[in-house]
Amino acid sequence: xxxxxxxxxxxxxxxxxxxxxxxxxxxxxxxxxxxxxxxxxxxxxxxxxxxxxxxxxxxxxxxxxxxxxxxxxxxxxxxxxxxxxxxxxxxxxxxxxxxxxxxxxxxxxxxxxxxxxxxxxxxxxxxxxxxxxxxxxxxxxxxxxxxxxxxxxxxxxxxxxxxxxxxxxxxxxxxxxxxxxxxxxxxxxxxxxxxxxxxxxxxxxxxxxxxxxxxxxxxxxxxxxxxxxxxxxxxxxxxxxxxxxxxxxxxxxxxx
Length: 256
Known about the structure:
By secondary structure, the protein is of the alpha/beta class. About 45% of the residues lie in helices and about 15% in strands. The protein has helices at about 5-10, 20-30, 45-50, 65-80, 105-130, 155-175, 200-215, 235-245; strands spanning about 10-15, 35-40, 55-60, 85-90, 135-140, 180-185, 225, 230. The chain has an eight-stranded mixed β-sheet, with helices on both faces. About 40% of the residues are buried.
């Protein structure tokens, strides 16, 4: 284990959307490794269920779409646990509304959680990470923007924009703060309220998410993992032919 990975184990983490499903499993998985975890969610009772029987989890009711509530929640974490060096942006809503059932207000409410909440939590966490010159952020995202399902306009747009946000953050941070490492992760189709009945158990997927969150090295900046495998950036046929002509070594995708 590297010193950086060891440092993450001793740090304070925030997991958003931790009241059920994948977020609950991620919070519990981190706590089982000894990480002090603040579990964020809209309602306190489900968060208390997340924390029950799992030492090291602090439940905090917080709607990530509300900037003031998010700021107050981060202040509570800092006061009770310390600075935040690990963030998993998991909170999301998937209202399943046809375009004729949606409105500008309802559409933007979804964006406020899925994209605004990701940015808001990231921006606040970066205050601590910049002071330390070190941090780890994992954005739980989706391919919904590539092939949107019916009645998923707001969800698809906001989750696709979340991956663009990762690239934009790296454009601002990677040169001056290279040890704040940001990755995107697609957990797969899960057996949760937002998923499908015969999907993957969130506890299984969370094992991969925990490994990714506790893995810190600069080469992970901007990477995209699907389930347990890294997805390499798409390369054109011309670029691949050039690699062969120049006998460049093929980099194998990493696994969690």
